From TrEMBL:
Biological role: Negatively regulates transcription of bacterial ribonucleotide reductase nrd genes and operons by binding to NrdR-boxes.
GO BP terms, alphabetized: negative regulation of DNA-templated transcription
Annotated gene: nrdR
GO molecular function per UniProt: ATP binding; DNA binding; zinc ion binding
Protein name: Transcriptional repressor NrdR
Cofactor note as given: Binds 1 zinc ion.
Cofactor: Zn(2+)
Pfam families assigned to the protein according to its UniProt record, in alphabetical order: ATP-cone (PF03477), Zn_ribbon_NrdR (PF22811)
ZnF endpoints (unnamed): 3-34
Length: 148
């Protein structure tokens, strides 16, 4: 880590603490050349790899937006949607993955959404899995009944 004051190429860590709900590490550093102190923040960045190969940062808001469409008219409150998105993000952060394929994000949403609202689950699954016929819905409903 280069010193921001004198550009010395080395620094010593004086103190480390977790920040931002454990998703970042705040480090207090000291330069051995000029002896000035500065702070750095290290944060794990989750990236979603799209089907096209493009990457973009993971966004809880995008998860909530997608699930909100499936829950439209179902009486699911915003807090439940926010908790679901947080649960998805924590799952991937806990796995220590830096890049996640977009289809894994969709698969990770399905189980918590099933627990939240079965009709919303069917709506989301029908779009995510590309249901083409009534038989696809019937098979998914049969699978839901077996689990329940």
């Amino acid at each position: 880590m280069n010193c921001p004051f004198c550009r010395h190429p080395d620094s010593r860590v004086v103190d480390s603490r977790t920040a931002e709900d454990g998703t970042a590490i705040r480090r207090r550093r000291q330069c051995p050349a000029c002896e000035r102190r500065f702070t750095t923040v290290e944060q794990l960045t989750l990236a979603v790899v799209k089907r096209s190969g493009a990457t973009e940062p993971f966004s809880r808001d995008k998860v909530v937006t997608g699930v909100r469409k499936a829950c439209q008219g179902r009486g699911v409150d915003e807090d439940a949607l926010a908790r679901l998105a947080q649960r998805i993000e924590e799952r991937f952060r806990g796995a220590g993955c830096a890049e996640i394929p977009s289809n894994e994000v969709g698969l990770a949403i399905l189980e918590p959404l099933r627990e939240l609202d079965e009709v919303a689950y069917l709506r989301f699954a029908s779009v995510y899995r590309g249901f083409d016929s009534l038989a696809d819905f019937e098979a998914e409903i049969a699978a839901l009944r077996e689990v329940s």
